[in-house]
Design goal:
four-stranded antiparallel sheet, 1 helix, 255 residues, mainly beta, globular
């Protein structure tokens, strides 16, 4: 975690910068580095500070590049939302011919598959994590009433294979946040004060309402591998176990 990717806006202009906390001189201004290639957001590829995905909201294109190369590889078009995982996996969303739907793709080593349809939404949720030698993928849309979980979706994946199938639909209305725990054992999906949790170790899932009074779109974060933390309107930090039990009110805080 030596490198921090920053979006810097000043005087009406925006630039993207990589800051190295050990050796600041190693930092890069990505806007200048990739001058001439239009992009509106950028992310690390495989957490590597020399490899990047460049996304352009205007034409919805996603490119891969690196700090040394002068070439850009088009990864996907029509992209509404995306997340890169490891070096070669991209999960991304495109509009479907049915305007009420959106298509969830996985792109892995040149193989592109639509694995699920979700409702057309203002925001999309998608993330992946490794736990006990298995890759778990979670996807959903904020207009839906469930989030879908996949286990090892890359197994046997090739151009002629069928698309992987979700093994579980976590029920939750209008989800707005999705996060894996720090040990990747749990995935938490949140909608206002309600939560749906999947435990990959015990293969159990939980659903509960904390009844906390939250500001709009306030999302809980994982404090560690088993506990969530959040700050409601009363300003006191709350910590609770993954299954919603053992709610503790701690010191005052600012989200």
């Amino acid at each position: 975690n030596n490198n921090l990717l920053l979006k810097h806006t000043v005087d009406g202009k925006t630039e993207f910068v990589v800051f190295n906390r050990d050796t600041p001189a190693k930092g890069r201004n990505l806007t200048k580095l990739f001058d001439g290639h239009a992009f509106t957001s950028v992310s690390f590829r495989d957490r590597n500070a020399g490899l990047f995905y460049l996304y352009n909201q205007a034409d919805k294109t996603l490119y891969a590049t690196d700090a040394k190369a002068a070439q850009y590889t088009l990864m996907a078009s029509g992209v509404l939302s995306y997340k890169g995982y490891q070096k070669d996996l991209i999960v991304y969303i495109t509009a479907d011919q049915d305007t009420t739907k959106a298509d969830v793709h996985i792109l892995y080593k040149g193989v592109d598959k639509v694995i699920k349809q979700v409702g057309a939404s203002k925001t999309y949720l998608h993330d992946a994590a490794d736990f006990n030698g298995k890759l778990y993928l979670a996807v959903g849309g904020s207009s839906d009433k469930e989030v879908f979980l996949f286990e090892n979706p890359l197994d046997g994946l090739n151009a002629s294979s069928t698309a992987p199938q979700a093994f579980l639909a976590l029920p939750i209305d209008n989800p707005t946040s999705l996060k894996f725990s720090t040990n990747a054992r749990f995935v938490a999906v949140q909608s206002e004060s309600s939560f749906a949790i999947y435990d990959a170790e015990t293969e159990r899932h939980y659903r509960y309402n904390t009844k906390l009074d939250l500001e709009s779109l306030t999302s809980a974060t994982w404090m560690d591998g088993h506990r969530l933390t959040i700050i409601p309107k009363d300003g006191a930090v709350r910590v609770f176990d993954f299954d919603g039990t053992n709610m503790q009110s701690l010191n005052p805080g600012i989200s």
